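Dear U.,

Please find below the material for section 3 of the report. The protein was modelled together with 6-O-phosphono-beta-D-fructofuranose; I have listed the sequence and SMILES used, followed by the predicted complex structure.
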Amino acid sequence: MNYNCRPSVNIKNQITAYINYTAIVQQLKQEITHKRINVITIENYPIVDEQEIKNSLINKLQPDLIIHTDEILIEQMQIDEMIAHNLTDDRIFGVMSHHALSDFINQDKHQAVQEKINAVIASNGLVVVYGVGASLVTISDLLVYADLSRWEIQQRYRSGAFSNWRANNAGEDPNRMLKRGYFFEWRVADKQKKYVLPKSAYVLDTHHKGVPVMIRTDDYLAGLKEVSKQPFSLVPFFDSGVWGGHWMQDTFNLERDKVNLAWSFNGVPEENSLLLNFNGIEFESPGSNLLFFYGEDILGSRVFGKFGEEFPIRFNFLDTVGGQNLSLQVHPKLSYLQDTFGSHYTQDESYYILHADRDDAHVYLGFNKGVEKQELMSALRRAESGDEVFDDKKYIYQHKIKKHDHYLIPAGTIHSSGADCVVLEISSTPNRFTFKLWDWGRVDLDGKPRTVHLYHGEPNLDMRRDEDWVKKELVNQFIVVDEGEGWIEEKTGLHEMEFIETRRHTFNSPVIHDNHNSVNVFNLVEGEEVTVESLDQSFETFVVHYAQTVIIPESVKKYKISPSGRAKGKKCITMKAYIR
Ligand SMILES: O=P(O)(O)OC[C@H]1O[C@](O)(CO)[C@@H](O)[C@@H]1O
């Protein structure tokens, strides 16, 4: 199976890149000499390895003064007090922060630091300022921005070697570190990055220990602009989980050393990296930067007007082949999410079945007829306290699945994917808001039970969603909407309560796609290979393999998808999503 785990986008622009610290130091020293620089600022995203940057870069510049941003900030304890409401005591859920980094500056400390800097400048010395929010410290002559993607950040949280920003909590429960990241750290850091990165002279890819890559910011932004005009794939990542399976390991031939693979995130710019290939030199960037700097080109003005710089569609896989059921869960209704967590839109979902490993594989979707909330909640509470095993057969409707089924899961619907299947999850993006109701009495891979949130789940369970309603509204809602020579297009969802529209194309000859004035995301759910071609030669032909997720920016109005390679003339199927 030809599955590319490191897809990159070829950028036409010829650029100079500085690879490793020796080359970077040399370039910055040249800048210092030629431009008579007194203050260099190296600002970074949280969890970039600041110690490495200090030892291998800053010290090598032999500055007269080094300042870390923390020197102008209020104490950690004061920050904790200010964000206590955002962090909450819960292990998983917080409340979205609307803070800015500048809220945490201590004016007296700031003034004292500025005086120290002024003294060095007066004697024509060199000052290097670094850290998160470093550009807030003083005006600089040269600004470098060091960046990092979310997946690498999560790995670093888990490693025990890194603390959250201003937290001193290395080794803490990674769930709590992730919560601080999601609800606070990334919010303030993104706000700051949107403002600072475009003002910088250079950007630094710090994903690989000891081997950073530095390029000019103009080249980087021009590269992102190029990406915003063509189909592209993000770098997928794979993660193990208590219910994880082995289909991805076997089918894609990857990460076989892991106990299992539960998730593959492959169409989530907030989480995935984007790999820019400048004539053989790879530069890894957070996918979200595309939205921050070219959001309107990527989403289209209609969708950009609704969602701003957030990517509203998420594609990921859930693999339970040889694994177990997901937790029995529900996602919050929109008003609950807005009131309780301060998020804009909720996690509406759908399951497209990529593979069912046995005839009686099933999903849990809605209730059996006549189930009362009070009785259900009592049973769930008894199960949570360990008094008894939850009788899922009594309460929850189970529906047998087969390959290429599509199940719609508007927020408020109780659901779970059963064991022995592979789901392509097509959902709206916020990915933290799963309220587990029952986790089958098991413990997680770390030996601890996963947190169940009955008090959040209860108000969100829509008891009207029983077997009859589910069959009528959520199961295989296929309607043929168009067809031509060798192709057919079906509308498959999502439910009218959800803002994503999904279309399935089955074809053995070329199909012209219209983008519906929205970003499009698709996955090749059947067939070995297809190509995506431009109708006006504005981008190079893009080759897509089985199970690959592709993002088509809205700037590409129409495009052609054709079976290619060994799939030429054979049946292929794509599942595409866009915003209604
Ligand atoms: O709670 P569980 O069992 O890990 O469930 C998996 C969940 O993971 C996600 O894919 C991402 O959070 C959810 O959408 C899904 O419902």
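For the text of the report, you could mention the following: Residues 90 and 532 are 45 Å apart (CA to CA).

Regards,
Y.
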